[in-house]
Amino acid sequence: xxxxxxxxxxxxxxxxxxxxxxxxxxxxxxxxxxxxxxxxxxxxxxxxxxxxxxxxxxxxxxxxxxxxxxxxxxxxxxxxxxxxxxxxxxxxxxxxxxx
Length: 99
Description:
Helix content is 72%, strand content 0%. By secondary structure, it is mainly alpha-helical.
């Protein structure tokens, strides 16, 4: 009794090979897409970091301005310059327009 060997099917291996190649190609495209997105996100992060630093500097400037405007000297200088107010014991000299 001789054993008959079944003929090997090479078509099954071919299909598996094609599927594996297809999956590798799809994964390669996905990886490149993710790298591009990552680069865009890193650029956006750098831009937002710069903007954050600018806003923090502006907030610090506003805080300094707020502290300066709370002083009596600032209020007095503003009253003198914009409103023309003087203290009760001061004498005001003005130039005449006769010349």
